[in-house]
Each structure stands twice: as structure tokens, then as C-alpha cells.
């Protein structure tokens, strides 16, 4: 019983100190996914994701500040249909040969208590940088029993106008300008 109380006190102290100071977290690529959804000919929703990504998050929950940087390998696009992936990588759409990465840098965090509710920053895609705000849901931090470290993360989303990044192929006949971007993130305290 005493050992359990001591363990609980140590965990509470670890979380308390984590909340009182800035901490840096590395994006866990096995629990982080960037995906998109776009309507196809007004009939169905096309979905795809990017399998390779890396980045870091610094967060100070007491000061209500933070910074996130996530870089996405655009050649890792995966819709589950190889010919379609090839077309998405082409100069018609993402032009991966010319623009191999996309990058989100967010430095304006909004909080509700200790919970992040939004991150505002910029998205650089196809050589163009535009302001983007990702709204958060399910933000949480927990002690991961596998890695024995704190992990923070959540689900983030926004809607982009693809034309602002120069992606105008088949606009608006096959697909609208609006694209839903979803980012599921978990990051491990360093």
C-alpha cells in the first residue's frame, strides 16, 4: 500500500512539474498522421494520408505558450490506390519533384485550462506560405506505460482553400476548393 502511494506521489509530482515549465516533445511517427479529405464530383469523399512526417513540439502549459514544427514528406502520400497516388505526386497537383516537403510551424497556442484548443501558424505547401489555424479536440497528456515518459497530443483540423497554394487542377469541376486537413499528433517528452 505504501509503495502504491509513493508511486502515485511520484507520478503526480512529475505531472505537476511538467505543467509548471516548458517541455519539448518529439513527434511519434507511429501515432501521428496527417490526412486530407476532399469531395469528388460532389458524390463521394476522397481521403489520403502522408506516411512520413517528423517534428517537435515545445509547450509551456503554465505560461500558455508553445511552438510546433511538423515536416511532411509529400512523396509519402497514400490513398490506397497507387495510380492515383502517382497523379497526386505529379505537376498537376502536389508537384512532389519540385516541392518534396510541406511544413507547418505554429507558435500561437490557445488554451482552455491545461488543454490546447487551437494552434495558429503557417503552412508552407508548394512553395507558398499561408496562415492556418488548427482547432484541437481530445488534447491530453499522459504517462505512457511503454516508453515511461509523458506523451501529449490530440486531434487537430482545419479547412484549406487549395487554390491559395496554387493547386487548381480540375477546379471546380472534379473537386472543390475546400480541403479538410486532419492531423492526429502524439509527441513524447524529451
Point out poorly predicted stretches.
1-19
- Please tell me the total number of domains: 1
Total number of β-strand segments? 11
Name given to the CATH architecture = Beta Barrel
Strand content: over 45%
According to CATH, what is the topology? Lipocalin
| Secondary-structure element string | HEEEEEEHEEEEE
Helix content: 10-25%
Broad CATH class: Mainly Beta
Instruction: Give the strand order of the largest sheet, numbering strands 1, 2, ... along the chain.
Output: 1-4-5-7-8-9-10-11
The chain-level structural class is mainly beta
Count of discrete alpha- or pi-helical segments spanning 4 or more residues = 2
Average of the residue pLDDT scores: 90
User: What sort of overall outline do the alpha carbons produce when their principal axes are compared?
Assistant: elongated
CATH superfamily: Lipid/polyisoprenoid-binding, YceI-like
What is the CA-based Rg, rounded?
A: 19 Å
How is the main sheet built? Answer: 8 strands, antiparallel, barrel
Distance between the terminal alpha carbons, to the nearest Å?
31 Å
Overview of this protein structure:
The chain has 190 residues and is mainly β. It has a single domain (22-189), classed as Lipid/polyisoprenoid-binding, YceI-like (Lipocalin). Helix content is 14%, strand content 55%. It contains 2 helices and 11 strands; from the N terminus they run αββββββαβββββ. It is elongated and about 50 Å long.
